[in-house]
Sequence to fold (546 residues):
Amino acid sequence: MSNVVTRPLPSLDEPDTGPFWEATSSHELRYQQCRECNKVVFYPRRHCTNCGSSILEWHVSAGEGVIYSLTVIRRNGHPYFSSILPYVVALVDLDEGFRMMTNIVQTAPEDVRIGQRVKVSWEDYDRLSLPVFVPVVNAVSAKPAEDKVVS
Amino acid sequence: MTSHEDAAIVGIYEYPSRVIEGKSPWDIKAECARLALEDAGLGWQDVDALYDAGENGMGAGFTAAEYFGLHPKVMDTTAVGGSSFEFHTAHARRAIREGKANVALLTYGSISRSQSNAIGTGGRVSERVSNPVNNMENPWGLVLVGNYAMAARRHMYQYGTTPEQLAEVAVTTRYHATRNPDAVNGLSALGIRHTGELSVDDVLSSKMVADPLHVLDCCLISDGGGAVVIAGSGIVPSTRRQPAWIAGTGEAIGYRENESDLTLTAATVSGAQAFGEAAIRPDDIDVAMIYDSFTITVLMTLEDLGFCKKGEGGSYVANGYLRYDHPGGPALNTDGGGLSSNHPGMRGIFLLIEAVRQIRGESTSQVDSPAYCLAHGNGGWLTSRHASGTVILAR
Ligand SMILES: [Zn+2]
Fold:
């Protein structure tokens, strides 16, 4: 007998962020931009965080960016997450100018670096998909990779 | 023009035990309140302003006054996590200055440890899906310590900060804790076998929790409680103890934005406000009580408050520079801090209490006649939404 523990998934009914998650079922990584002032808004909301306008347009990201920071989680009391330890949580700066939290997968945690170029990959669930990221192999990074920084 | 002598902390009490059984958090708060008022030489019914951080649930604005049996003219439930008490101090001084109140009471009581809240790695996933933030972040499995770990990782990337330098913070605070009997007894009560001094190697060889933070880079999880009494200048002469005048305060909120530098905290704003009001510089501070949820919290806060340049925190904290008996830098967290004395979840009140002990000359790691002591609370999560509250106390 194995206990099936499931990953906590977002709600499609949350008014501000529901549309973001709905789009993931067709593997679209969406973000918003203000039509008045062009500010890129993320996480999704219904107003512009720069000018207060309520006219935000949805765009689809190309799904590529650079790791801003990361950590390798080695302890978590949550039943699902404790079953996948260790795993990488990262902040990724997408090329379109928004920063999102995600997991970096399909690579050894110790090989994940700040400055590494990554692209979106999708983990499919019933009514939505989770946008996780994987390193872009042989990518030329716009920023120096972490191990090249000297103090 | 702000006077440095509008309001002062005149009463303090810290609950001595780190493991508390058979008491409710409210009972702990009331006991601390009684003893802090006694310390001040004031009576229960002198309190006309009540502050509560809501550490025991919603509705503190109704429940606190009733539980204590007080009729406050000012009720303030600003809840910004560990920095709540620094915000409360700022608000109390304003209320007193405006003539709305004369005696303010701040209390805190928590049985986090006994309730076995794994604050740092509990992996509690909020059920409140109506919150847009939770709906975006819950799927990724980020624990509280992970936020700070990402700050540390980025700081190392941008400035070349090393794990050894982070460990120095834990080494310094443990050094101070070994001199504080309540802290040493607490470490034992919490089941920590090694209660003596730590070396950098001890920290680095402790278990990794979230890279690059080890267990010994993280604060304790304890029970605890405390209370602080603040009085206006008209009341101060009738109190018993040396007043710790509130010379400057600052409050700020920070959060993650697209393209923002997450090695910076809201302390850049709250610190500048507080130093401006007090009309002093970081060099003038003798004791720095800096919220130490994690070693990186201290390092980044010291930079953002201006004790050293941005990015130079690593070398600043090294070689015991912040020990109470080391000349030059301010003494850091002389009670042992959250890393080695107590951390029941919101540590901000203990920063104020130890700063007042230093002003009075009663610390177990006493600095010689400090003129200015700083208490800086950090609430929330670095690299994410957080609050910074800075209070400068003067003799
Ligand atoms: Zn706008």
Notes: The interface with chain A takes residues 118, 121-125, 129-133, 135-143, 146, 149-151, 153-154, 157-161, 207-213, 256-260, 262, 383 of chain B (CB under 8 Å). Chain B has a mean pLDDT of 95. The pocket of zinc ion is lined by residues A 34, 36-37, 39, 48, 50-51, 53 (CB under 6 Å).
